Amino acid sequence: MRSRTALVVATAVATLALTACSTETSTDAKGDTSAPEYTTVQHDDSGNQRTVIVEVDSTNRLRPVFDHVAEGLTEEAGYYIMINCSTGGTDTVDNRLANGLKAIGPIGAATTGLDEGATEYTADPANNCPE
Q1: Dihedral sign of CA atoms 107, 113, 115, 121 in order
Q2: HEC profile of the chain
Q3: Could you give the CA distance from residue 115 to residue 105 in angstroms, rounded to a whole number?
Q4: What are the tens digits of pLDDT across the range 57-73?
Q5: What does the alpha-carbon distance between residue 89 and residue 91 come to, in Å, rounded to a whole number?
Q6: Average pLDDT value for the chain
Q7: Which burial class, exposed, middle or buried, applies to 73 when counting CB atoms under 10 A from its CB (0-12, 13-18, 19+)?
Q8: Per-residue model confidence (pLDDT) at position 12
Q9: CA-to-CA distance for 59 and 40, rounded, in angstroms?
Q10: 15 vs 112: CA distance, rounded Å
Q11: What is the pTM of this model?
Q12: pLDDT bucket at 17, cuts 50 / 70 / 90
């Protein structure tokens, strides 16, 4: 139980550290706020803490991608959503563009440290998709 608590605390601290430097535009030049195409490469479907990893081809409109993924999550759990570029990573290191959390129910709130039903999103403006 201590290792799980330590993991939750470490994740929360890392998320807060990234939040301090987060900026991102959620629309394109035409004002489009819809989610661009993405591929789900991992979606845990059991346990109190679940990971969802999606890949995109561009840094455009990452927030709508996060929102679309989060809206589709309905089972009670704490979700850790990761958005990676489909290129630029290696077999052992992802090209992470953004991270997010979603808390569904009391278990989700306890797992993520968020209020029930809340989400948290953080983009890393220093990362991009290689062309």
Answers
A1: negative
A2: CHHHHHHHHHHHHHHHHHHCCCCCCCCCCCCCCCCCCCEEEEECCCCCEEEEEEEECCCCCHHHHHHHHHHCCCCCEEEEEEEEECCCCCCCCCCEEEEEEEEEHHHHHHHHCCCCCCEEEEECCCCCCCC
A3: 9
A4: 999 999 999 999 999 99
A5: 7
A6: 81
A7: middle
A8: 45
A9: 16
A10: 10
A11: 0.74
A12: very low
Q: CB-based contacts of 104: which residues, under 8 Å, 6+ apart?
A: 73, 74, 75, 76, 77, 78, 79, 116, 117
Residue type at 32? D
Q: How many residues does the chain have?
A: 131
Cross-strand partners of 56: 85
Conformation bin of residue 72: beta by default, left when phi > 0, alpha when psi is -120 to 50? alpha
The structure tokens 């990676």 sit at 84
Q: Which amino acid is at 12?
A: A
Give tens-digit pLDDT for 84-131.
999 887 777 779 999 999 999 999 999 999 999 999 999 998 888 887
